[in-house]
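[Discussion] Sanity-checking designs against the backbone

I'm trying to build intuition for which residues belong where. Below is a structure token string of 198 positions. I'd appreciate it if someone posts a full sequence so I can compare it with mine line by line.
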């Protein structure tokens, strides 16, 4: 395996790309960014300074992942998704002078293992998207998303639970849910879903 960077992509020499990673047309990977093995950075996607991505992550076309975002292994970021990084964005200071990089404190979005963010969603930092959670297309995430939650809307709210396969779980009663695709079982306790241990 090797790293693939197409000619029109802009990858800073200080960025680290893991084995098997591909960076496609017009994408930009900034200074100090770290991408794990087998990642895909789609056309026109942006990976900010110092962003950390685990193994097997996919950034679809025109996704904007601003620093200091952290993506754990297996995270999917759909087309035109935006991760913000500023509590109170302004172009200028109160006196009218142009703000610079040192004039604000960056806050990031964290995506836990296996999380998926649907097309054109906006994640307003600082938020954490839980393990194997699914953010529906077009959602605006303004608060943390629990593990295995399916959230949708503006602002995003939990509407179902999903399993590792990404499909909604079927309730089986008494806080137990089953994945219709894999048969895996999950248990809900106090608004949190975990995999059933045997």
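Best answer:
Here's mine. Compare freely.
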């Amino acid at each position: 395996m090797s790293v693939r960077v197409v000619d029109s992509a802009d990858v800073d020499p200080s960025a680290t790309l893991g084995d098997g990673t591909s960076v496609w047309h017009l994408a930009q990977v900034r200074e100090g960014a770290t991408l794990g093995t087998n990642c895909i950075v789609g056309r026109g996607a942006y990976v900010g300074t110092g962003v950390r991505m685990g193994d097997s992550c996919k950034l679809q076309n025109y996704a904007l992942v601003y620093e200091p975002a952290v993506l754990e292994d297996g995270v999917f970021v759909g087309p035109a998704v935006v991760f913000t990084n500023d509590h109170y964005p302004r172009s200028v200071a109160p006196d009218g002078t142009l703000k610079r990089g040192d004039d604000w404190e960056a806050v990031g979005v964290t995506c836990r293992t296996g999380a998926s963010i649907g097309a054109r969603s906006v994640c307003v930092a600082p938020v954490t998207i839980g393990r194997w959670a699914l953010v529906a297309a077009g959602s605006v995430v303004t608060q943390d998303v629990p593990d295995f939650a399916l959230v949708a809307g503006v602002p995003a709210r939990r509407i179902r639970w999903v399993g590792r396969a990404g499909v909604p779980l079927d309730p089986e009663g008494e806080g137990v849910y089953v994945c219709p695709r894999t048969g895996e079982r999950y248990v809900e306790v106090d608004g949190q879903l975990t995999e059933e241990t045997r």
